[in-house]
Structure formats: structure tokens, C-alpha cells
Design goal:
This protein has 533 residues and is α/β, with parallel strands linked by helices. It is built from eleven helices and 20 strands. A hairpin with a 5-residue loop joins strand 14 and strand 15. Helix 7 packs across helix 8. The longest helix has 34 residues.
């Protein structure tokens, strides 16, 4: 029988009718699914939205917002640029700016020392010399590891002067309530590679025999700055972060800044030494410095590589772990993902419910300068989702000042004098300010679930109540203009609400209205409503 005959016999009239009927059913089912999906989307995206606010359902108490002093302050903080530096600090920490209240001070590992000029990787043509950092320790005085314990070998007057100048200016704003002294690498004289990055990828670069010396080194550096700038500011918390993003490779020919990898068991063992030294130091000096652990590169879960779970498991084997108040994490890799945050939040709730979480570093890892409301809303989503989904008590951006060309700055500085303005900002500056200017240390976040469970409406919300009874509602509307009903806010009916809005065409535009039961959201906007003001 030929193939044609077989085909003809297969498609009998009866079988053809069955096939046609089955195909018709499949098409009908597919059509129903499409119609239902579109209907659900229409309901979710365009039906009246509701936020069910419960002012009595308290979550975390907020600690504040900040950014890092790394790299650029070393150039911008020189005396001849004092006026520009002062304006940059006002834009970040001042009342007319973002009103940041956390200052992250980078304790350098000495990679800027002239002795390293002709060494790898600093002699590589592609290495960014601006990412070499000065150390307070005088390397020329070094003969023996014990020299790190002698305060006479440290210079707190002639070293890191540019950064310290901008630090002092920031403190003068009166808005800072927390300083985190963080280090990307131990001093190069303590490392296996002899420089502030690994000789190869994933090298545990801190020599084990220097655990105590590195701990003392950090404490002496912080105490020197504390005595000079913070001793008369008892309300400013002091935290020390000796390790930053330990999971990353921090080594090899691709090295471009100070950095040190720690395997999970290595990091846990080092922290055991640092914790003991910190407590001993506090007791001897009457200080209350706290340990910041462990600046995790992110909180994503990986299939093969070590992730935050492995580090926490190793740390939990030591007694100090039960004394930690919080852990610090970075949002790299998680970006604005809801799924990564949900997984991490569920993991923490199940395994470490007693630990608070602080989100301490993030930037948009892309070349360019995105002065768009889409980029601004993106940052606002990252911040608000960290606050509402992983209960972050604080949130800090990476570089407070950058030079431009990359999405890592809040304020940009034209160091070459090629632009019309020596300082400029992008839309993210304003959307970040929609949060930082209104939520203060001591404010408490409360539950505020949306009726749009699918998230198709493009709305994110965070609600915070202040000790004086005022309530701050921050809303991101990624989409068409719409109204949002606020259930649970009946006590404010008939009262005036202060509104601040940022869109593509507006920056912190202020207005007011009398509240009934809903708020209006402009297209593609970040809006802050203050009730009871």
C-alpha cells in the first residue's frame, strides 16, 4: 500500500470528524483562556484598586537611609573644591536634599600607597586608579604584625583628609544618626597576595594569622575617627563592617578595586575573633561600637554556588551569632524581583526569625545615565520592595557621588569641567527622595496589602506611621493614571493631605487635597502622601 493510500485510509470520514471536533474544542478552550486572562487583567489593571491598610499591624521600625563615601570623595574633598563638595553634601544629607541619615565611611586597605604603584594589578592600564584607597596605617613603620596594634603607627591628621573633610561637613547637617565604617579589604600587608585583591579568583586573601591584627586594625581606625568627629555626638550609632560581599571572586586579572573573598567557614571563623575583640575593646574604651555582618553580595539562592544560606549556616555554629541584632544584605542580583524577596523572607522567617535585615548597598549595574521616570520607578521599586517584602530596617545606595557614564551615583560630579553644571542628578535622585525625605528613624511600617494580587496594575505601596501620629503613604504607579482607595484610613477623612509627586516632567512637586477615601495617582509616578500633618 502506498503512503498516499495509507493517508487516505487514516483520514476516514468518521476519524476526520473526530479530529475536527477535537480541534474545535481546543480552539474554544484556548479562546476561553485568552478571554478569561484578558478579563482578569482588565479587572486587575483597571478596576478600582484598594489598599487595605492596618495601622495596628506593625512590622519593622525604620533605621534610616544612606549612601557610601567610597572613591570619589578622595578627589572631590580637596580644599580647592570645598564649595562644590559642600553643595554635594547638602544635596545628599542636607534639608534641601535627600536628607540621608546614614553615612557609610570606607576604611581603605592602603592600595593607594606609592609602594604599590608598580605592582599588579595597580600597574595595569585598565585599572581605575580612583578606586585605590588610602589607609590610616603607616606602612613604612611595619616590621612585625604587632605593629598593627600600636596606635603610634596610625595617622589621623594627614591621611584620608579629603574624605574626612566631606564626612565632617555631612555630620554638620545634623541629620546623620548612624555611621557605618566599612572595609572592602584588609590592609595589604595582611593579605596572601600582598595587595588589596586576590592573586586569583576566590582566594581567601586575609592570612589566618592576621585575624586578630585585622580586628585591632579596624577598631583602631574607627576609634581614631570616632575621637576626632563623633565623641561629642552620643546619639550617632557607630557600626563596623570589616567584610564586604565575601561571596564574590575579588581576585585575578579582572580586579578593579579593593575586595576580599571569604569562604563561608573562613568568614564565620574570622567573625568569631572580631566579635571577641570588639567586646573587649568596648569594655576597655567605654564605647558601644556594633558589628555589621555580613554585607552579603545579595540574598538570591543559587543552585550550585554558595549563597547567603551557606554563610548564615556557618556563622550560626558560633556563639556570637545569637548576639547579632541584624544582618546586612545587598540587592544586587535580586533587582526588583518579587520572587527572590519572597523566597528570602520565607527562609529568614523559618530559620532566623530573630534577625533583622538591613539593605546596605545597591546600584543599577548598567552603563549610561538613565534620566527617565522608568529608571526612577525602578529604583523606587527596589527600595520599597526591600522595605515591604524582606522587612529591611534601613536602605543604602552605593556611591553617593560618581563621575557619570554609569548608573552608580546619586549625585554626579563633572571632574573634567566639560559640562555646563559641575553637579547634576538623574530622575532616580528624586524618586529616592520621595522615600528618604519622608520616612525617618523610628517610623514603623504597617501592613498595606493591595487588592491587585497579580500585580498587573503596576502599583507598589508602603505605609509608615510616625510617633506623632502622622502617616506616610508612598505609592509607585507604573502605568496609566488611576485612583487608589485607602481602606483603614477613615480617621483622616475630611482632613488635608500633603502630596509630593515625581513624574517625567515633575520633581518633588507639592500639592494638597482633602481626603475622602482615595488618592489619585498620576501616570508613571512616585507619590508621597502625608496624612495628619
Amino acid at each position: 500500500m502506498t503512503a498516499r493510500e495509507k493517508l487516505k485510509n487514516f483520514f476516514t470520514p468518521e476519524r476526520s470528524r473526530k479530529i475536527a471536533k477535537t480541534a474545535g474544542i481546543c480552539v474554544a478552550v484556548a479562546a476561553v483562556i485568552v478571554i478569561l486572562s484578558l478579563s482578569i487583567y482588565s479587572i486587575a489593571a483597571y478596576a478600582p484598586l484598594r489598599a487595605n491598610i492596618d495601622l495596628d499591624a506593625e512590622r519593622q521600625t525604620m533605621g534610616g537611609f544612606g549612601a557610601s563615601s567610597a572613591w570619589i570623595y578622595q578627589e572631590l574633598g580637596v580644599p580647592e573644591l570645598e564649595e562644590t563638595a559642600d553643595r554635594a553634601i547638602e544635596m545628599l544629607y542636607g534639608d534641601s536634599g535627600l536628607q540621608l541619615d546614614i553615612f557609610r565611611y570606607n576604611i581603605g586597605g592602603g592600595s593607594a600607597d606609592e609602594a604599590l604603584d608598580d605592582t599588579w594589578p595597580y600597574n595595569n592600564a585598565g585599572f581605575d586608579q580612583g578606586r585605590r584607597a588610602e589607609s590610616f596605617f603607616i606602612a613604612e613603620n611595619y616590621d612585625d604584625p604587632s605593629d598593627f596594634l600600636d596606635t603610634a603607627n596610625y595617622d589621623f591628621d594627614g591621611r584620608d583628609t579629603a574624605v574626612r573633610s566631606m564626612f565632617a561637613t555631612a555630620l554638620d547637617t545634623g541629620n546623620i544618626n548612624k555611621v557605618v565604617f566599612f572595609s572592602n579589604s584588609p590592609h595589604y600587608l595582611m593579605t596572601e597576595s600582598g595587595v588589596c585583591t586576590g592573586a586569583y579568583e576566590y582566594q581567601n586573601n586575609l592570612k589566618p594569622e592576621f585575624y586578630e591584627e585585622y580586628s585591632e586594625y579596624m577598631l583602631i581606625c574607627v576609634k581614631g575617627l570616632y575621637d576626632k568627629y563623633l565623641a561629642d555626638m552620643p546619639d550617632v550609632e557607630v557600626w563596623i563592617s570589616p567584610v564586604n560581599e565575601p561571596q564574590w571572586k575579588w581576585g585575578g586579572d579582572g580586579s578593579s578595586q579593593e575586595g576580599c573573598h571569604y569562604d563561608a567557614d573562613v568568614l564565620a571563623a574570622f567573625y568569631d575573633v572580631f566579635w571577641d575583640k570588639l567586646n573587649e575593646f568596648n569594655e576597655q574604651n567605654g564605647t558601644d561600637f556594633k558589628m555589621d555582618a555580613f554585607e552579603s553580595g545579595n540574598y538570591k539562592f543559587y543552585l550550585f554556588d554558595d549563597d547567603i544560606r551557606d554563610y548564615l549556616e556557618e556563622m550560626s555554629k558560633y556563639e556570637y551569632f545569637s548576639e547579632l541584632e541584624e544582618i546586612s544584605v545587598h540587592a544586587y542580583g535580586a533587582e526588583d524581583s518579587k520572587s527572590h524577596r519572597s523566597k528570602f523572607a520565607a527562609f529568614m522567617e523559618e530559620n532566623y526569625p530573630e534577625l533583622k535585615v538591613a539593605s546596605t548597598e545597591f546600584c543599577e549595574l548598567e552603563w549610561g545615565e538613565f534620566d527617565t521616570i522608568e529608571s526612577g520607578m525602578y529604583l523606587a521599586k527596589v527600595v520599597l520592595r526591600d522595605l515591604t517584602m524582606i522587612d529591611a530596617t534601613e536602605w543604602s545606595w552605593w556611591l553617593s557621588v560618581a563621575k557619570g557614564g554609569y548608573n552608580d551615583g546619586l549625585v554626579y560630579w563633572d571632574s573634567d569641567g566639560t559640562r555646563e553644571s559641575d553637579l547634576w542628578v538623574l530622575k532616580r535622585y528624586y524618586t529616592f527622595g520621595q522615600i528618604t525625605r519622608f520616612i525617618d528613624k523610628g517610623d514603623v511600617r504597617v501592613e498595606s496589602p493591595l487588592s491587585d494580587l497579580t500585580g498587573w496594575a503596576g502599583v507598589d505601596i508602603g505605609v509608615f506611621k510616625k510617633p506623632d501620629g502622622r502617616v506616610v503613604v508612598v505609592v509607585i504607579n507604573d502605568g496609566a493614571a488611576k485612583d487608589l482607595r485607602l481602606n483603614g484610613m477613615e480617621r483622616f477623612a475630611g482632613t488635608e493631605v500633603a502630596v509630593t509627586t515625581t513624574t517625567q516632567d515633575k520633581n518633588w512637586e507639592e500639592s494638597a487635597f482633602v481626603f475622602s477615601d482615595h488618592v489619585s495617582l498620576e501616570e508613571n509616578s512616585v507619590t508621597t502622601f502625608v496624612f495628619g500633618g
